[in-house]
Amino acid sequence: MFKSLRWKLQFFYSTLLATVIICSGSVFYYQVWRSTFAEVDRRLEASALYLDVTLRSFPPPIQQGLEAPPMLPPPLRPDGTAPPPPRPRRSKEQFLEELRLPQDSNFPGEVNPDDQPYFLVMTSNDMLLKKEFVPLGYSEAQSLAEQFYPQPTLTMLENKLREVRMIGPSGSKIIVGKSLRRETIQLRNIAIQFTAIGLAFLVLGVGISFAIAYRMVRPITQMSVTAELLSEKDMSKRLDLNHVDSELAGLAEVLNRLFSRLEASFSRQRQFTADASHELRTPLTVIRSVSELALSQVRSPTEYQETIEVSLKAAERMTNLVNGLLALARLDSSNADFNLQLISFNDVVSESIGLLGAMASERKVGLIADLHSVQIFGNSESLSRMIDNLITNAIIYNKPGGKVFITIRIHDDKAVLEIKDTGVGIPEEHLPFLFERFYRVDKARSRLSGGSGLGLAICKGVIEKHNGTITVQSIFGEGTTFRIQLPVFKNLD
Amino acid sequence: MRILVVEDEPDLLRTIAKALRENGYAVDEATDGSEGLSCAAISRYDAIILDMMMPVMDGAQFLAKFRKLYRTPVLILSARDTVENRVDGLNLGADDYLTKPFAMVELFARLQALIRRSLGTGDNIVTIQGVTINFGSKLVSVGRRKVELTAKEFSIIELLVLKKNRVMSRSDIFEHVYDVNEDSMSNLVDVHISNIRKKLEVDIIETRRGLGYIISV
């Protein structure tokens, strides 16, 4: 499963998505958490300062040497309404009296249902003067008080209570606190909601990533399905380039080209097998038929002789063909049995000319040679067979009284052998296929002359084994030129 | 029976033609499809033996053109032996397909079967008025007595039996029994007929004066 590209994609998508959801959820939750507590703190501080300022508004001034704070303008309520008119001035004793608390109260341990902030005012020797639930707010008091007093210290009590403690006038202590029960519940609900939404997103994302991975992988699956449909019997199927993404289109195109090459190669192979089988069957058929005919009744010696002659001719044709096929098979196989040696190319060519002189004069064809001496790395046996073949062709397909020009020259470190005849020539449409196996320009005629149809294919194979090239030029009715280029041996010493 | 052999391999063409002639067929030879078409335009054949891979015009091209004009049975004789090749050959309009190398006897048997079918006779052995003619073994007997007929004589009686109840003129018979190499000799057919009558001792061949000969059942 983890070998599958699709599952890998899916896995990466899901992991990435989960990470993003968890991180962003955490950050968001932290922000909410922080702003909740900041709001609580802000309100508590404001309340404490308000309390402090209110206490200080009683004479005498709280700290010696400092000027009494100016009379406060009545701070506005958070809702913008004017505060209630200040109560008539009371003495400090009166105020403290108002603040006195019943001693049996377990305040601040008890938590009132609405989580209202509370305040306590204590004397310097920790005597509780006043406790009360107060409304939140009054930031104006905070800004004013900040001008006279150091920052209040904030205390967090086990996440359940939040309190502001500060030193009030005359060394008294002011504690303003609030239970965090409601905020905690709120935060917990928010956390649950976040988790639920995150999980929902994760499931959705995984589903989408499943679909995306499927869509991404589908063309590849289709490609493999198409490729699997191709077989030796039917190579005609191709990948559909219209419905493939651009990245895969390149691959599909490459594969299509590969398929085309394979198809061409298969069809060449099939054609070759069919041709070879045809070429082998034909003489075999001749042998069988003439033998059957000869044996069907008593014949005259002349008739038997004819039969044997026809059989022998067919057998020779088969021998030629088998030799040709073996030569091709050897050329196709490897370099192992192709022994290249330093040889004199012009000697090989002039030897062939010498051997074929009789045949040429019999057909009244003149052989004209101009051979520059050149050394090459080659296999003299296969080269001379090939040159025999080419010169024989040039003689056979010549006109009576025609000529064959055979030249070797050196051009760009290449030995260039040209065999040029003044013969019948080859129609242009045949030239591209001339070196293909079993390709015949004139099927009837070449078969009569005993050709196997493999000669030029073998020539090409031999030349390619020598890292050379063979080309042909021909004008129909005027003659044909074969040009062979072979690398010249260079003495590096 | 007159056969056209279209084959580009000269030795094979000569051999098949010779074997057919020795078996009493009249044979014309063509070395490629276009030559075959011209032969078909001149003479009527009872069957055609056709090679597929030929220069100039191959078997497929020949069949395509030939089938538009004639219904003569065609037997393909080809070195191509795959199922696809056979199917293609038959779809092109051939009636039978034989792959090379082949046995002569099989070629003859298939040829005989093709001719028989094209003339609407399914049976290989026909008996008319006590004369039994076996097309397969090319034997003729009257009652239990075997009659020795020459190849030409047999092909004449074969033609008359296969085309029974139809009057065959001298030239019809000549055309079916002799190929283009033979010079037309007007009384050759009459000579053969009288020889057949002598050998059979039963006169199943009627003469229609001025028209020709007939075997009626």
Strand and helix map with partners:
The complex is a heterodimer of chains A (493) and B (217).
Chain A: H1 5-56, H2 92-99, E1 118-122, E2 128-133, H3 139-145, E3 153-157, E4 161-167, E5 173-179, H4 181-229, H5 246-295, H6 301-333, E6 341-344, H7 345-362, E7 366-371, E8 375-378, H8 380-396, E9 403-411, E10 414-421, H9 443-448, H10 455-465, E11 469-475, E12 479-487
Chain B: E1 2-6, H1 10-22, E2 26-30, H2 33-42, E3 47-50, H3 59-69, E4 74-78, H4 83-91, E5 96-99, H5 104-118, E6 125-128, E7 131-134, E8 139-142, E9 145-147, H6 151-162, H7 170-177, H8 188-200, E10 206-208, E11 212-214
Parallel strand pairs in B: 1-2, 1-3, 3-4, 4-5
Antiparallel strand pairs in B: 6-7, 7-8, 8-9, 10-11
Helix pairs in contact in B: 2-3, 6-8
What does this entry look like structurally?
- The complex is a heterodimer of chains A (493) and B (217).
- Chain A is of the alpha+beta class.
- Chain A contains 10 helices and 12 strands.
- Chain A folds into 3 domains: 5-187, no CATH class; 246-331, Signal transduction histidine kinase, dimerisation/phosphotransfer (DHp) domain (Helix Hairpins, Orthogonal Bundle); 337-487, Histidine kinase-like ATPase, C-terminal domain (Heat Shock Protein 90).
- Chain A has helices at residues 5-56, 92-99, 139-145, 181-229, 246-295, 301-333, 345-362, 380-396, 443-448, 455-465, and strands at residues 118-122, 128-133, 153-157, 161-167, 173-179, 341-344, 366-371, 375-378, 403-411, 414-421, 469-475, 479-487.
- Chain A has a 5-stranded antiparallel sheet with strand order 2-1-5-4-3. A 5-stranded mixed sheet of chain A has the order 7-9-10-12-11, covered by helices on one side. Chain A has a two-stranded antiparallel ribbon with strand order 6-8.
- In chain A, a hairpin with a 5-residue loop joins strand 1 and strand 2.
- Chain B has 2 domains: 2-118, Rossmann fold, CATH 3.40.50.2300; 125-214, Orthogonal Bundle (Arc Repressor Mutant, subunit A), CATH 1.10.10.10.
- Chain B is 42% helix and 20% strand.
- Chain B has helices spanning 10-22, 33-42, 59-69, 83-91, 104-118, 151-162, 170-177, 188-200, and strands at 2-6, 26-30, 47-50, 74-78, 96-99, 125-128, 131-134, 139-142, 145-147, 206-208, 212-214.
- In chain B, strands 2-1-3-4-5 form a 5-stranded parallel sheet, sandwiched between helices. A 4-stranded antiparallel sheet of chain B has the order 6-7-8-9, with helices on one face.
- In chain B, helix 2 (33-42) runs parallel beside helix 3 (59-69).
- The radius of gyration of chain B is 18 Å and the shape is globular.
